[in-house]
Structures are given as structure tokens and as C-alpha cells.
Amino acid sequence: MTSPRRQLRWELSNNVAPSIYFGLDRKLCGIYTLEFEGGGRYVGQTVDLTSRLASHRRRWTDIVAVSFIECGPDELDDLERSLITQTERTHSVRNKAFTQMPGGEAEIDLVVDRQQQAEWLDGVQSAYPLDERTRAAERRRRTRPKYEQLVAHPAFPEALGDLAAFVHQVIPWPSVTGGLYWGVSPMPSTSRTRERHRLFTVSAHNVELLYLMHYPGDGETDAFLNVGSGIMTARDRSGLTIDRRPRYRSYRNCEGIALPAGVMSEVLERPSVLTAARSMALGLMRRGPSNFAKFHSDALLDDVLLHRDDVPTA
User: Fold this and answer.
1) Is 181 helix (H, G, I), strand (E, B) or coil?
2) Domain regions of the chain by residue span
3) How far, in Å, CA of 232 to CA of 235, rounded?
4) Which of 63, 160, 250, 290 gets the most CB atoms within 10 Å of its CB?
5) How distant, in Å, are the alpha carbons of 177, 191, 204 from that of 283?
6) How far apart are CA 203 and CA 298, in angstroms?
């Protein structure tokens, strides 16, 4: 006897981004059922539940919940037809057949819902609604000037090396979580004076994880790394400049390590230092999206991701 498929359900709020409900994996493939205020339903298939739900919420403002059954791409059509038939027995459904739609199945149906295609064909919906890709493009344009300022800085190669070492060894799934659960901002104005300025800051939730400070007078650059307290061993602490004073009201259980720029990879080779850094980063990311994500530089993260082959792995 085949066991019933597991169906997950989330109650939705229009004030919360869909990605918050579904965790780190934003490319869920399967069949979803939308629930509306009046009791109606809509059943559809997708290979990216987060993106599809965001699109539906722009069209329908009365969605109160979504149920989801994960399956493989080859199962989508049969499972969708079965669930539509099952749902029609107890609820009114908004699924409709559109006579102007070209017939047959197409891969684009997995990316853009068939009902959306039909409505667009009738002139109901814009072909290019505001979506996550568009928001990312707007953020790129907004943060580009400071990114270009950082790239032109004489200390950029050294800064990129330390940033890449930190991101690839400390941040979980950086290409997926960047700009959502953590962010890196180039040339921030924090603590800026004539004698010093930051080259970048990495933050998660509402706390700094790492920043590089440059001192134009002597041309020196220092890194300041925050890690979870009570984790580093006495051996791994040896030779490090560590500040044990609480620095953040919202995260008092951390210690700060001051380092000369250019030694990040070397320091993270110390096992308990790496564990302490990862513990703090993941702990903050699990609290929810970063409050500083709007300042995140996608272009700078691009450089970091392309720099991965130059970073030793733990």
C-alpha cells in the first residue's frame, strides 16, 4: 500500500515575504493549493514555490493560506489533475480553461502559471510584474556606486581576499542566503571619520559579523571579526587580540577579534575560531532576514563567489 503524500500548510500574512515561510530552499517543486478568504481554492504546479506564491499574491489579495505537496517534475501533471478533481468535490475552484491558450503542455508552465499566461493573453496582467529578480536589479543599481568606489580603492584586493575567505568558510550556502539572511555592504558610512573608514561590513539579522577598517594616514587596514563566545580554545586564542566586552545589546554572547588585513584564511584555519564564527553567523541567520539586506551589494557577492577557487576549504 502506498503511503499518502505529506502535505504542508502555511497560513499567510501579506506583510511577510514568501521566502520566510519556506526556509533556505526557495526552489520547491510540487503542487500547491491556495486558500482564499471566501473558502475558494486554486490548484497549480510549480518548480519554484516562493516565486509562484509571490506572483499570485500580486494578483489576488485574499489569499489566506497555501498547502503544498512536493514531487518530482515528471509527476506534476498527473498529481495536479488529481488534486484539482479532489478539491472540486468540496470547494469552488478558480482554475479556469481559456479557449485562446495554445494547446498542449510546455515547460514554461512550470515557470509561469498557465492561468497567468491566459490572463496575460487577454490583457489582464502585465507581462513583467515586480518580482524578486526585478527587486535585485533595483538593489544592484542602488548599491553600484559604492561598489565601484570600493573596487577603485587601493586596498580592494586585500579586502576581497579576506571577505571571500570569511564568506566561503563561515556563511552557510552564501549564494542562496546572500541578500536575504545576511548581506555585505561596501563603503558604509558607519564610524566614518577623516582618519578612518570602513571598506565593507558583513551583517546578519541586526548584528555585524565582520568589517574592515582602513586608515588613510598610514595606509593600514584592520579586520574586526565577531564570533560566538565560550567556544574558542585556549590554544586557538593564542596570539589573537580578543575583546570580550559585550558590544551588541541584541547579541551579548560574542567576542571580537582584531586582525591585520590579509590573514583571515590563516585565522579561520584554527578549528575553534571557525566553529565560533559559524555558530554566531548561523545563530543570527536563524533569527530571520537581515535588517541590512537592502544595503547588500550583489556585485560584491558576485566577486566573492568567483573568488572561491582561491580560498582554502575547511
Assistant:
1) coil
2) 7-129, 133-310
3) 8
4) 290
5) 14, 25, 9
6) 14
Quick check: 311 and 164 in contact, CB under 8 A?
yes
For 256-270, give the DSSP string.
EEEEETT-HHHHHTS
Please count the residues of the chain: 314
Banded pLDDT at 26 (limits 50, 70, 90): low
Which of 256, 148, 158, 266 lies closest to 208 in space, CA to CA?
256
247-301: pLDDT as tens digits: 788 888 899 999 999 999 999 999 999 999 999 999 999 988 888 888 999 999 9
Residue 48 dihedral angles phi and psi, to the nearest 5°: -150, 90
Q: What is the pLDDT of residue 1?
A: 38
- Three-class SS of residue 143? helix
Alpha helices in 171-295, H assignment, sequence order: 174-177, 234-237, 264-268, 271-285
> Contact 304/296 with Cβ under 8 angstroms?
no
Asked whether the CA dihedral 244, 246, 250, 253 is positive or negative, the reply is positive
Nearest-5° Cα angle at 100, 79 to 59:
65
Whether 147 contacts 159, CB under 8 Å: no
CB atoms inside a 10 Å sphere around CB 104? 6
DSSP state of 110: G
Give strand ranges (E) for 41-101: 41-46, 63-70
State the residue for C-alpha cell 489576488.
60
Given a contact cutoff of 8 angstroms between Cβ atoms, the answer to whether 227 and 277 are in contact is: yes
Q: In what order do the strands lie in the sheet with 63-70?
A: 7-11, 63-70, 30-36, 41-46
Q: Rounded CA gap, 225 and 29, in Å? A: 38
Residue 107 CB neighbours (<10 A): 8
Around Cβ 7, how many Cβ atoms within 10 Å? 14
- Partners of 33 in the β-ladder: 43, 67
Between the two ends of the chain, the Cα-to-Cα distance in Å is 45
